[in-house]
Amino acid sequence: MTDTAFTDAAVGGRSLWATAMMRLRRNRAAMASIFVLALLGVLAIFGPPLAPHSYSQVYPEFVKVRPSLAPYPQAEQVIPAAERALSRARVEMGEIVVENGTVHIPISSAREIDPRLARYLERSDIFSGAQVAELSADGKTATVTAEVQQLYFLMGTDANGRDLLARILISLRISLMIGALATAVALVIGVAYGATAGFLGGRIDNLMMRFVDILYSLPFVFFVILLVVFFGRNLVLMFLAVGAVEWLDMARIVRGQTLSLRRREFVQAAEALGVSSGAIIRRHIVPNTLGTVIIYMTLLIPKVILLESFLSFLGLGVQEPLTSLGVLISEGAKNMRNAPFMLFFPAVTMTILLFALNFLGDGLRDALDPKDR
Amino acid sequence: MTDQTNQDRVFEVDDIHVTFDTPDGKVEAVRGVSLHVDRGETVAVVGESGSGKSQIMMAAMGLLASNGRAVGAVRYRGQNILNLPPGQLNKLRGAKITMIFQEPMTSLDPLYTIEDQLSEPLRVHGGLTRAQASARVLELLRLVRIPDPERRMKSYPYEMSGGQRQRVMIAMALANDPDLLIADEPTTALDVTIQAEILRLLAELQRKLGMSILFITHDLGIVEAFADRVYVMRQGRLEEDGPTARIFHAPATDYTRMLLAAEPEGEKPPVPDSAPVLLQGQDVEITFGKPGGFLSKSNLFKAVKGVDLTLREKQTIGVVGESGSGKSTLGRGLLQLLPAAGRVIYLGRDINGLTRQAMKQHRDGLQMVFQDPYGSLSPRMTVSEIVTEGLLVHEPGLTRKERAARAAQALEDVGLSGAMRNRFPHEFSGGQRQRIAIARAVVLRPRVIVLDEPTSALDRSVQKQVIDLLRGLQEEHALSYIFISHDLAVVRAMSDYVMVMKEGKIVEEGPTAQIFDAPQQEYTHSLMRAAFDLKSLLDAG
C-alpha cells in the first residue's frame, strides 16, 4: 500500500441528502414554509417572555376588548373607570380632568380623607402611581392624581381579560412542543419497531404486527380519558398518549419499506459479509427508510397538533393558565358572536402553521423522490 | 433496397436533438442524429447504455418524459410528426407505427385478459364489433404462434411466461397492419432460447407482412443476424452507419471496432485434480414456500434438486441456465444465505445449517458479488463505508486508519482511485459500481467468491473490463469463483468447468471446452445454438 492514496485529498461526494436539499432549495413554497416555521418556532420560544403581558395576567377592566393598535384605556373609558374605582371610597367627586396621561380627581368628604384611599385607584388596571395630593388643611378636600396606564392589546383580550397575543404565543409553544415531542416519540418507537418487525420477518413479524393491530382497535379517546382519570391532567402524559397512538401508523409504514428493502441486494450483501441483524437495521434499513419517514413526519406533526386541539376541545388537554391553539380556538368558538377576533387570531395562527407544515411535507416528498436515484 | 425513392422512405429522422431539464442543469441526450428506414427494411440502432438510442424513438412517438424536449424533424411518409398534438399523433401511433418494449412483464395490464387487451384498440380504433374483434385476436395470436390460442385468449398476463407475453405484445403491435415496427430491446429481458424464438418470429412476420422494423439494441450478436443496415450511436451522436456486413467486417471508426472487439475472449486452463478442495456441496436441495399446516395446503417449490459440486482452489465453475433454473438460488444456498438441505463442506467442515453466529467466522472466506450494481450498494453510505463494513465485523481490532488503508488498497486492486472513497454510489457508473462491489468482497481476503451474474447489467465493453479484473484478482489472490450467468460467452471466457442447470437439476457438467464444443444433451445444444449461432437459427425459420 502506497501512501499516495492517502496524501491525495479524498474527493468529497454529494450524498443523496445533499442532492435532496439542493432540490428542496429550488422549491419556493417549501422554502417559504421553512422560513415561516422557523419564525413560528422563534416566536414560540422567545415570544412569551418578550410579550408585553404575561399570558396568565388577568385585566378585569379589559374583558374581551377589541384588538387595537391604540393603547388601552381609550379616552372615554378613563373617567367612568375613575368614578367607578373611587365610588367605593364614599367621597364626593368634582369634575375629573385628564391631561398628559395623568388624571386629576378633586374629592371632598364630610369626614377627614384617608390618603390610603388612593389604593382604590391602584387596584384598577387602568391607573398606577395614585396618590392623594393637595390635601387641604382640614383634610376634607383633596385632589387625587394617578397616571393612566398605556396598555396595548394588539389582538384584544380573552373572556377573562388576558392578552390574546401572549396567549397565542404560549399556545404556539405548547402546540409545537406537543407536535414535536409526540412526533419524536412516534418516530423513535415506530421506526425501531417497524424496522425490526420487517427485517426479522416470519413469526416474529407476525406477532409484532398483530400486537399493533390490537392497539389499533383500542378507541383512542377512551384510552386518553382513562389515562387522565388515573393520572390527572398532565402535559407529559399528553405527549405520551398521543405518541403512543401515532407510532402505530409509523410502524406500519416503516415495516412496509423494510420488507421491500429486505429484498434489495445491498442488504443481502451485508448478510453475506456476516453483519449482525442489529447493524443491518441500523446501517442499511433505517437510513433508507428515513426519506419516507421524514415526509410522514411533516404530515404527522399537524395531525398531532389537531389531535391535541381535539382533546383540548373536549376538555382533556392542557390545564389553565397554560393553553394551546386548540383551547384558544375552542374558547373563541364560544365567543364567536360578541368577540369574533378571539376565534380569528388563533385560527389564523393554526392555519398558517398547518399550511407551512403541509407545504414542507409536499416539498420534501418531491425532493426525496426515489425515482431520481 | 438500392432504389431509395421517396415512396419507399417510410420513416425518417432529420437532425433530431433531445434535451432534458434536470435539477442539475440541461442534459443533451441526443445531439443531432439523422436516420431513415425504407420499406421492408430491418434497420438496427446500436449503442451502449446512455447513448440516446431509445430517446430518439421516444421523441418520435411523443413519449418523452415531461422534462424532455425534442427539436428537429421526424417524418413518416414525408409528413413531419415530431411534436404533433397527441390527438393527431394517435392516428399514426399504435396503428401505422407501433412499438414493442423491453419489459414484457410490465407492459400488459394485469387486470385484463389477453383478449380484452388485444380487442380494445381494434374495437375503438378499427371500429370492429365484439365478435369481429374476437376473431381478429384469435388470428393475431395464431400469427405470433401462441400455442393453444383459443384457451390463451381467456388467460391473464400473470399466467403467461415472459416469452409468451412478448408475443402478445407483438400481436398487439401488428393488430392494425403497421408500416413500421419499432422494437426497443424487445429480447433483452428474455432467455437466449426464447430470444431466438422471438427474433425468428419477427423475421418471419416481416417476410409475410412486408413491414419495416427499426430495432434498437445493445447486442451486436442480434444485429449481425437480424438487420440489413446498422446505425452505431455513441453519446447522443451517430458514430457511423452502413450495411450490416460492411460495419461488421470493415468498421470505419475506432468506437465500432471497440464494440465489435468487446466480445469476451480468452479461456481458463483447468486446475489440476490435485488442487485442494475448498467448497463442496453434496446433494444440495433448496425449497421455498410453506409446508402444509392444519388449515393451509402445502405450497412447496423445490428450486434446487440434489446438486453436487466441488470447487477447488483457483478454479472457476461456471453455472449456466435460463431464468428460473435455480442457479442463483444454488449460489445463495451454498453461502448459507438461504436455508438448504444436504451438506455444504467448506475447508473440511460442514457449514450447512449453522446459526448466524456460528456462520460469522466463515463469512470472510465466502463472499458474494451480486448482479445489479445499482441495487447492491447501499445508497446512503459512502464507498469507504461500504467497502469497510465487512472489516468492522471480521477484524474489529483495526483502527479507523488501518481500515481506511485497507479500503484504499481494495479500491486500487479493482482499478479505482482511493481518492474516490468519500463519494456515494450514485455518483459512479454501472461498471465502477460493480468494481466497488468486488472491492467490498476482496477487502476481506476471501477464498471463494460466488459471482451472481456480475456482468449482466453492464455494457459489453465494460463487461470485458470487469472480466479482466476478475481474472487478475483470481491470479493475484488465489481466488476460487462460482460464476453464475446466463451469458454463455462470458462463462466460456471465465470458467474452466461448466455446469448446465435446468429446472433445479444439473443436466450436464464438464470442462468448459467439452461442454461448449461437444455438448451431449439436447438442452445444452439448443442453448449453444441460440447463443452463438443465431444467424443459422433465423435463416432456418
From TrEMBL, chain A:
<feature type="transmembrane region" description="Helical">
    <location>
        <begin position="236"/>
        <end position="254"/>
    </location>
</feature>
<keyword id="KW-1003">Cell membrane</keyword>
<feature type="transmembrane region" description="Helical">
    <location>
        <begin position="285"/>
        <end position="305"/>
    </location>
</feature>
<comment type="similarity">
    <text>Belongs to the binding-protein-dependent transport system permease family. OppBC subfamily.</text>
</comment>
<feature type="transmembrane region" description="Helical">
    <location>
        <begin position="211"/>
        <end position="230"/>
    </location>
</feature>
<protein>
    <recommendedName>
        <fullName>Oligopeptide transport system permease protein OppC</fullName>
    </recommendedName>
</protein>
<keyword id="KW-0472">Membrane</keyword>
<feature type="transmembrane region" description="Helical">
    <location>
        <begin position="174"/>
        <end position="199"/>
    </location>
</feature>
<dbReference type="InterPro" id="IPR025966">
    <property type="entry name" value="OppC_N"/>
</dbReference>
<dbReference type="InterPro" id="IPR050366">
    <property type="entry name" value="BP-dependent_transpt_permease"/>
</dbReference>
<keyword id="KW-0653">Protein transport</keyword>
<keyword id="KW-1133">Transmembrane helix</keyword>
<dbReference type="GO" id="GO:0015031">
    <property type="term" value="P:protein transport"/>
</dbReference>
<dbReference type="InterPro" id="IPR035906">
    <property type="entry name" value="MetI-like_sf"/>
</dbReference>
<dbReference type="GO" id="GO:0055085">
    <property type="term" value="P:transmembrane transport"/>
</dbReference>
<feature type="transmembrane region" description="Helical">
    <location>
        <begin position="341"/>
        <end position="361"/>
    </location>
</feature>
<keyword id="KW-0812">Transmembrane</keyword>
<dbReference type="GO" id="GO:0015833">
    <property type="term" value="P:peptide transport"/>
</dbReference>
<feature type="transmembrane region" description="Helical">
    <location>
        <begin position="29"/>
        <end position="51"/>
    </location>
</feature>
<dbReference type="Pfam" id="PF12911">
    <property type="entry name" value="OppC_N"/>
</dbReference>
<keyword id="KW-0571">Peptide transport</keyword>
<dbReference type="GO" id="GO:0005886">
    <property type="term" value="C:plasma membrane"/>
</dbReference>
From TrEMBL, chain B:
<dbReference type="Pfam" id="PF08352">
    <property type="entry name" value="oligo_HPY"/>
</dbReference>
<keyword id="KW-0547">Nucleotide-binding</keyword>
<keyword id="KW-0067">ATP-binding</keyword>
<keyword id="KW-1003">Cell membrane</keyword>
<dbReference type="InterPro" id="IPR003439">
    <property type="entry name" value="ABC_transporter-like_ATP-bd"/>
</dbReference>
<dbReference type="InterPro" id="IPR003593">
    <property type="entry name" value="AAA+_ATPase"/>
</dbReference>
<dbReference type="GO" id="GO:0055085">
    <property type="term" value="P:transmembrane transport"/>
</dbReference>
<feature type="domain" description="ABC transporter">
    <location>
        <begin position="279"/>
        <end position="528"/>
    </location>
</feature>
<dbReference type="GO" id="GO:0015833">
    <property type="term" value="P:peptide transport"/>
</dbReference>
<dbReference type="InterPro" id="IPR027417">
    <property type="entry name" value="P-loop_NTPase"/>
</dbReference>
<dbReference type="GO" id="GO:0016887">
    <property type="term" value="F:ATP hydrolysis activity"/>
</dbReference>
<dbReference type="InterPro" id="IPR017871">
    <property type="entry name" value="ABC_transporter-like_CS"/>
</dbReference>
<keyword id="KW-0813">Transport</keyword>
<dbReference type="GO" id="GO:0005524">
    <property type="term" value="F:ATP binding"/>
</dbReference>
<comment type="similarity">
    <text>Belongs to the ABC transporter superfamily.</text>
</comment>
<dbReference type="GO" id="GO:0005886">
    <property type="term" value="C:plasma membrane"/>
</dbReference>
<dbReference type="InterPro" id="IPR050388">
    <property type="entry name" value="ABC_Ni/Peptide_Import"/>
</dbReference>
<keyword id="KW-0472">Membrane</keyword>
<dbReference type="Pfam" id="PF00005">
    <property type="entry name" value="ABC_tran"/>
</dbReference>
<dbReference type="InterPro" id="IPR013563">
    <property type="entry name" value="Oligopep_ABC_C"/>
</dbReference>
<protein>
    <submittedName>
        <fullName>Oligopeptide transport system ATP-binding protein</fullName>
    </submittedName>
</protein>
<feature type="domain" description="ABC transporter">
    <location>
        <begin position="11"/>
        <end position="260"/>
    </location>
</feature>
